[in-house]
Design a protein that fits this description.
homodimer, alpha/beta, six-stranded mixed beta sheet, 12 strands, elongated, DNA-binding
Chain lengths: 340, 340
DNA sequence: GTGAAAGCGCTAACAA
DNA sequence: TTGTTAGCGCTTTCAC
């Protein structure tokens, strides 16, 4: 049998409402009574029934985390976001329910309409994401972890991939490079219009063009063969490339190898700058110059924003600015004829 | 205002109990009434209030997934398990609540005693895990995703790491290798007695000893420097090694490189066999001979086991047998003097 | 085949 | 400062 608030009340010799108020703290209780009740709570190991509480209070203290897990190979990138979200949620006294929306909208609707969650955090937001208008119409606090083309009045948090792309271009151009290539994620990311993938690529192209430079990009599938294929095709078509911007979590540990196999030394022949999460970038040897995606912080920020979005005012987005860390895979351009 | 069962009843011109029975299906309802009610449900977009239902029914249809996320660098390995668990849970009509037990037992107790979850799946089980006796005493269905020293009557699912270790040893011995080294996970895994880490290492040592061979093992920290350091120290102490068994998710993509840098070609000088999840092993170039850890299947199996553990009978464990896949990083031993 | 009504455990408005 | 009580939305026994 469950321990109920009535059990505690009986044990402490008070009424249930007194116990309730000791718990919630919104009534002045005499110190003695409070102490006695708390002792009983401890003694009986009492916890309020979450269902009853949510029925009565109309809120659950649960955040729904919507993660489309079907993109299997993307999983290793997702975990730090999840971690950030759950940590921040706990700090607010909230629990996290995993909504792996393979059926897309249905699961979200169910969770909200059946009052299982108070609010939502959406991960893996696409540029044109059908979940965004759906969630916007739900009338619940919701935060997008990723920037869509139209946030529909929802708050969002994202890494500033445009600025990151620009930073990479400026860095390489500043080192004298004029022929700069781009290695992007798997084609499927672009097909499904995953927000960051498109934004990064577009910005690289735009900023190169501002410098009067051409854009040379490839998509690389998430495996060794795919990366090698992509690199080869890129360098076959444009052998004069001396700078490489890489936004592809799966190629990071392969890129230097692949370049070596194509007869290019890093950074002597080719400078490489990577945009990636820390856990990816820091695994690699030799250390790569990179722009870190602060996944965990982004997850945290999403929950913080959620805690603010109870109001009805349409919320704006937050873009976290990038920072470039030099780690030795980049070097000033040396004219070909003067190389040792 | 929420849509309630009473709203639906009114809309359909029946009583709430009729609606309830249409939903649950445990009463014979005339086809016309059923159709009318279902139309109303559809029309009003009705979903039962999860809290009310759990209050009344005494169950939540929620599974608590206990993931100690604090071991940050371990995150990339965890996701496939999470995926398997959530998929299988959905198939049972269950939701998944993420319990990132940084405070260990407190969060588990809270979730159970406040009736937020019907059952538990524990990940990252340690050999002597304080959560195991705790959960065993909770009287709720629970499954361990990992084998502890004493399951305390709880069901568990795990990969058969002993068998995997044996398989690796036998394979290398079968190829003629007599000096075989072992590269294990970070020291912290052994310190916290993470079950699989200890079991693997112990089994490798035991099986080697059965063949009259010595055990030479190192722990490697999860970064390039750590792996190189570990390998160097291993090969400094035992330069005659020609076979290497690797159970370290972070070194997989570094091991061949590191061996090259130490002047050893794979598989000519050194044969390498890896125990790792697919998403790790398949990312590497050149392809490594490996024993795949079927993380997703293990997650699924845990939930299946949970669906069976409603009974009170103490449950037994399931060990999933390993399989070795040859991919080219191993070769028969060639005596040193006959090498080209 | 269907309806009325009690009660799951909790909170808060109302009483004292 | 504390107790009494109604009712959140649902299921299910009991009655018809």
């Amino acid at each position: 049998m469950r321990t109920t608030i009535t059990d505690v009340a009986r044990h402490a010799g008070v009424s249930p409402s007194t116990v309730s108020h000791v718990l919630s703290g919104n009534r002045t209780i005499s110190p003695e009574t409070r102490a006695r009740v708390q002792r009983s709570i401890r003694a009986l190991n009492y916890r309020a029934h979450a269902g009853a509480r949510s029925l009565r209070a109309g809120q659950t203290d649960v955040v729904g985390l919507v993660v489309p897990l079907q993109t299997c190979y993307y999983q290793r990138v997702l975990m730090p976001y999840v971690y950030g979200v759950t940590e921040a949620a706990r700090a607010h006294g909230w629990n996290v329910m995993l909504l792996t929306a393979t059926d897309g909208k249905a699961e979200i609707e169910r969770a909200v309409y059946s009052n299982m969650v108070d609010g939502l955090v959406l991960m893996e937001v696409q540029l044109h994401d059908e979940r965004v208008p759906l969630v916007a119409g739900l009338g619940r606090p919701a935060v997008l972890l990723g920037m869509p083309a139209d946030p529909a009045g929802l708050a969002y948090v994202d890494f500033d991939f445009e600025a990151a792309a620009n930073l990479c271009v400026e860095h390489l151009v500043g080192l004298g490079h004029r022929a700069i290539g781009f290695v992007g994620g798997p084609q499927s990311l672009y097909d499904s219009e995953i927000s960051f993938a498109l934004r990064t690529q577009t910005s690289v192209a735009a900023r190169l063009s501002e410098h009067g430079l051409e854009f040379h990009g490839v998509a690389a599938e998430p495996n060794p063969a795919g990366v090698q294929l992509a690199l080869r095709s890129l360098l076959d078509q444009t052998p004069e490339l001396t700078g490489l911007i890489v936004k592809n979590e799966w190629s990071v540990d392969l890129i230097v190898d692949a370049l070596n196999q194509l007869g290019r030394k890093v950074p002597r022949d080719t400078s490489v700058v990577v945009i990636a999460g820390q856990e990816v970038a820091s695994q690699v040897s030799p250390a790569l110059t990179y722009v870190r995606i602060p996944a965990e912080e982004l997850g945290r920020a999403a929950v913080e924003l959620l805690s603010t979005s109870s109001g009805d005012a349409p919320r704006e987005g937050v873009l976290v600015p990038p920072e470039l860390v030099r780690r030795g895979s980049d070097a000033p351009l040396v004219p070909a004829q003067s190389r040792s």
